[in-house]
Write a structure and sequence with these properties.
single chain; alpha+beta; Heat Shock Protein 90; 14 helices; rod-shaped; disordered C terminus; histidine kinase; transmembrane helix
Length: about 450
Amino acid sequence: MSGTGEALDQGGPHTWRRLGWWSRRRSAALDITLAVLSAAECGLEGVAFAGDAGVPVALGVALGVVVGSTLLVRRRWPIAVVLVSVAVTPAEMGFLLAVVGLYTLAASEVPRRITAVLAGMSVVATLIITMLSFHQDMESDGWDPPVWVAPLVSSLMALGVTAPPVLLGLYVGARRRLVESLRERADGLERELSLLAERAEERAEWARNEERTRIAREMHDVVAHRVSLMVVHAAALQAVALKDPEKASKNAALVGDMGRQALTELRTMLGVLRSHDVPAGGAGSAGPGAAGASAPLASVAAAASVAADEAAGGPCLAEVEALVGQSRTAGMVVELSVEGDERSYAPRVEQTAYRVVQEALTNVHKHAPGARTRVRLARRSAEVAVLVENGPSERGAADAGLPSGGNGLLGMKERVATLGGGFVSGPTDAGGFRVSAVIPDRVAAPGGV
């Protein structure tokens, strides 16, 4: 209650601290005004007290001014103010002091049992003094009322002076605590919303990075293998173009087929990405910002990782033999062995196994041309195991001169890890390279054998 309010009230946070306990200018002005009024009231009542007590008037007025001025510290020491008002009750001074003191005490954070005790003391003191004053007045006037009149009037007077300020103070204090509680709850909710917004932004950034990686992996898997075979066939075509026109023609036809297959797969992927990037209302119904908002990156994730394969039926284990045949046509010596009974797996499992074999053969074309290669495919009840191993290249350390981005092995590992499988790659003791993957089928495909 000090920092911000003080700075706004006086131009700096240190001005009111020198005065003591006020957090706002109007609070200090109110207390000073009440203290002046109470001092004036008690000073006037001190004149009558001095006459009754037989003391100098100046002393009675000075006592009243000092007593009334205690309202200045009502916010800091409300208990002391109430005790002073109770103490001067016999002097019949301090009405404003008692009312404001009781209100401040009830509205403060003082324990309720202390408030009840002090309020009871004020009631008893007011009751006694009122009864004594009532009897004195009745005797001086010569009026003899019934016996119940004095207690009734005194009780009403005591409760009328004490109860209203106490009840009002309790209400204001409870309302103040409720407002503070609601404010704290609102601040807490605001902090939670801010934290949730930060986490949402972090998740969105993570999703964007993840989708960039998946799209890059898909583009690599779809295009790299076909283009690598095209380069290999183009090199063979160049070598035999003059010596063996028939073989050159055959290689040229293979290059054309590979190019058409690469374009078909590339168009399929781009078509899927485009269909997920257009808003539901049409391409012209909103601007780029609306399109980005209505097409979240999660949809691109599905397009990049799954739909690109499934849109055209997707590769499957039955096509691995044709994939190996393409490498054989390009001049690679490949041995294919398939173990286990033929069975169906989930589409993503079969597609992942196909992509692992495809990328491994592409790496052989790139980095070990002429090396003998063995592809082993094991069909098991709840998983598919893939092994692609090549020996050392017959051309030594030379390769086919194909560019490599270094993402092939990483992409295979990510694909397998996404399905909860295991992936291992590395050189063999014989100087070749081995790629091994075990891909679990957690959801068995319907109709499996």
